[in-house]
Amino acid sequence: MSTTSQAMLNQGLFEDQEMPSQLGFYSFHPNLSFPQVGCQQSLKAFNIPPSLAADAPSSLTEALLSSAPTKQREDITSHLGGAQLLSLQRSTANLWAWGDVNECLSSKRSIGGDDHLGVSAMKMKKIKARRKVREPRFCFKTMSEVDVLDDGYKWRKYGQKVVKNTQHPRSYYRCTQDNCRVKKRVERLAEDPRMVITTYEGRHIHSPSHDLEESQAPSHLNNFFW
DNA sequence: CGAATTTGACCAGCGC
DNA sequence: GCGCTGGTCAAATTCG
After folding, report:
1. 20 to 30 Å CA-CA from A86: which of A3, A36, A97, A179?
2. Rounded to an integer, what distance in angstroms lies between the CA atom of residue A100 and that of residue A98?
């Protein structure tokens, strides 16, 4: 069964390195099985399966906070309310995200071609590369008893970390598909442990491991921000 | 026994 | 420059 059955709705944050203008928030209508057109396209770009998208997040503020660096998190918390976040797109409070986008744009193609390197050099390069390249990210919050939502892809856990000011550890997963560099982070909200924050980073280069039918797509739209 | 997960160590980036 | 923090690695451990 779907692990998203208890999910609420339906807001989140994404950033797109190729289309910085699409950094922003989306919001779904709670009664729709799938969000409106604009969101659908973006979700598709991120390969977020409709099954998950329909169950996506319930708190815009917290969706943003979950992926913001600590300092900005504090700024956001102290200066903004949820409603204001809807128009946050180019405000100073989300410079962190714009910074990421800019970094992505300026550091394209900085890795690859390890073939002729020795082991240690390769390792070093890997280590250096691991922070240089920022993939587009998409995060949302879902109410769920289980941490890992069934999104149709196969993930391997590669790390777990206790993050500051939270009692729940953050888990790090990588897509198991060869050559697919998509990662996701999963953590529970400190203020409400029933809520799971999932952040996807990167785009899948393949289809989900179990077939999700191609989408269904209602074409009406409403309640769509960015 | 191979695959997946756990966990401590390491490293880079950021803020002070 | 230094300490703190988040992200990743990889050896050890657990699971199926």
Report:
1. A3
2. 5
